[in-house]
UniProtKB/TrEMBL annotation:
Domain ABC transporter, first and last residues per copy: 5-251
Xref: InterPro entries: AAA+_ATPase, ABC_transp_ATP-bind, ABC_transporter-like_ATP-bd, ABC_transporter-like_CS, Oligopep_ABC_C, P-loop_NTPase
Stated name of the protein: ABC transporter ATP-binding protein
GO molecular function ontology, one term from the record: ATP binding
Annotated membrane topology: Peripheral membrane protein
Keyword entries, A-Z: ATP-binding, Nucleotide-binding, Transport
Major subcellular site: membrane
Gene3D superfamilies the UniProt entry points to: P-loop containing nucleotide triphosphate hydrolases
Cell location: Cell inner membrane
Protein family according to the UniProt entry: Belongs to the ABC transporter superfamily.
């Protein structure tokens, strides 16, 4: 079937000043990213902080424009749509329901806000939509007049999900939606997201540092490193047979429950590089246990792998480093 969401060669370059009087230098936060998702698919986007995941999410939400390339929703370019059309199609669920819900507003006000902002319906129809949507996410209608501070973390994340769903979007951008929750509550929220996907045919971009969560929910996985998707495959292909050394390192890492700490570098050797001055050739070469001189001289191209692509000289039949029997 036709893709619901398609990215074609999307790049985003910012100009950042180094120091107060420094000349602005380019920072390529997203570098030539392409993928496409069918209805009901869940793409898990994984990588360390600073890899470009959040910039990609902002572009998809229309909060930022790509420098190059196109984002298409149902074949229509999103730069050409008004914000209402985009908000109806793509809605976010953010990491921290404590900070993303206004503490001075009632749950009714919070969940109905997208409808009011876009002038959809009247007070009666909005009230009905709020009650129906709270029911969908497993919250009792009586919470409408309460405040976020009166709710548990899991309930607040359900409110955030209701606020996204009230627009009846096709695509939901989930940015670490369970990272701030107790482990016992995480699986309830993941199950809810999965049920909602089945019920409404939702397509998710699921940003997470937690590979266990990604394996549980995603149908495809994209591994991002310094703005590039270095490996993409179906969840089974990627977890069973990772081809990129960085993917392997992520799978080996003991991941911390706190995403603000990022993925620990213990097994990745050298620290995460400065995105303003990415390493030459393959950006991963300073941390890669398989790197050779060729890796810093030339960037690997994307080559097909089972169910996706990978960017590593060891996997490229046209590279002098090609090793057909190589597995990481
Ligand atoms: Fe490692 Fe070289 Fe492959 Fe990059 S291209 S991942 S440095 S082996
Ligand atoms: Mg982030």
């Amino acid at each position: 079937s036709d893709p619901v969401l398609e990215l074609r060669g999307v790049s985003k370059t910012y100009r950042v000043k180094q120091g107060l009087f420094g000349t602005p230098v380019p920072l390529r936060a997203v570098d030539d990213v392409s993928f496409s998702l069918g209805r009901g698919e869940v793409l898990g986007l994984v990588g360390e902080s600073g890899c470009g995941k959040s910039t990609l999410a902002k572009i998809l939400l229309g909060l930022d424009m790509p420098t190059k390339g196109k984002v298409l929703v149902d074949g229509e370019e999103i730069g050409g749509q008004d914000r209402l059309a985009l908000a109806r199609r793509i809605q976010p669920i953010f990491q921290d329901p404590y900070s993303s819900l206004n503490p001075r507003k009632t749950i009714h006000d919070i969940v109905s806000l997208p409808l009011r902002v876009h002038g959809i319906g009247d007070a009666t129809s909005r009230d009905k939509a709020v009650r129906e949507t709270l029911d969908l996410v497993g919250l009792p209608v009586r919470v409408v007049n309460t405040y976020p501070s009166q709710m548990s973390g899991g309930q607040r994340q359900r409110v955030a999900i209701a606020r996204a769903l009230i627009m009846r979007p096709e695509i939901v951008i989930c940015d670490e939606p369970t990272s701030a929750l107790d482990v016992s509550v995480q699986s309830q929220i993941l199950n809810l997201l999965n049920d909602l996907r089945n019920e409404f045919g939702l397509t998710y971009l699921f940003i997470s540092h937690d590979l266990a969560v990604v394996e549980h929910l995603a149908t495809r996985v994209a591994v991002m490193y310094l703005g590039r998707i270095v490996e993409e495959a179906s969840v089974a292909d990627l977890f069973d047979a990772p081809r990129h050394p960085y993917t392997r390192a992520l799978l080996n890492s003991v991941l911390t429950p706190d995403p603000s700490q990022g993925v620990p570098d213990t097994q990745l050797g050298a620290a995460f590089p400065n995105p303003i001055a990415p390493p030459s050739g393959c950006h991963f070469h300073p941390r890669c246990p398989f790197a050779q001189d060729h890796c810093s001289a030339q960037a690997p191209r994307a080559v097909p792998r089972s169910g996706g692509h990978v960017e590593c000289h060891l996997q490229d039949p046209d590279s002098p480093m090609y090793r057909p029997d190589f597995t990481v």
